[in-house]
Specification:
Elements (H helix, E strand, L loop, with lengths): L6 E8 L7 H11 L3 E5 L7 H11 L3 E5 L6 E5 L5 E8 L10 E7 L2 E7 L4 H14 L6 E6 L7 H7 L3 E2 L18 E5 L4 E7 L3 H6 L5 E6 L3
Parallel strand pairs: 1-2, 7-8
Antiparallel strand pairs: 1-12, 2-4, 3-4, 5-6, 6-7, 8-10, 9-10, 11-12
Amino acid sequence: MTSPLDRLRVMTYNVKGLHVSRPDVIAVVRAAAPDVLGVQEPPRGLLGRWRMWRFARAVGMRTVVNGRGARTTALLVAPGRSVSERSALRLPNLSGRTKRGVAVATVDGIRFVVVHLSLVRDERAAHLSELLRDHVPATRTVVLGDLNELPDGPTWTRLTSVLVDADPAGGPTFPAVDPQHRIDAVLTTPDLLPGAATILSGPEVLHASDHRPLLVEVTLPQ
């Protein structure tokens, strides 16, 4: 399935390193057919980039940002979509725990910022400040990913003060089986028009990862 050129199917998905069930993750992504896929917890380590490249091929996409400074994030794009710039941004390791990064790319003129924010509140706040200051323009931007925080927390409050929550009435996304917490999100600048938003479900979703993916259709400005 190919989206019209004035719309993008945008998906965010924490794939848990493809350790739970790689075949089911592949089935979920292929069925959803996103134009842009923001990945959290991609495979890492010595063969991580190669495993992500193989995964992209299996789902019919290409890796745009993968590994290096992106660390806990990756960005995949469907054929036929243009990519004009890309970067992998290292975030400072303030907690001494997981080293985190951000995948950034411009796809069909829209800037995508894929995040996997820290479990540590102060580090999460510091990383968000850096992102909003330096990497989230006021127009033509989508921020997507695993926020590791509930919607009533300060991260969501800061993000929704400048961005539009694409699924404000959305249900929980974590854990995949019997989800209780909404911690995954797609947010856009006000000039973009988020449309239908779906938290995916089904047998493959339940077996693929510990998160449910969120799929949003975004209309591009004319």
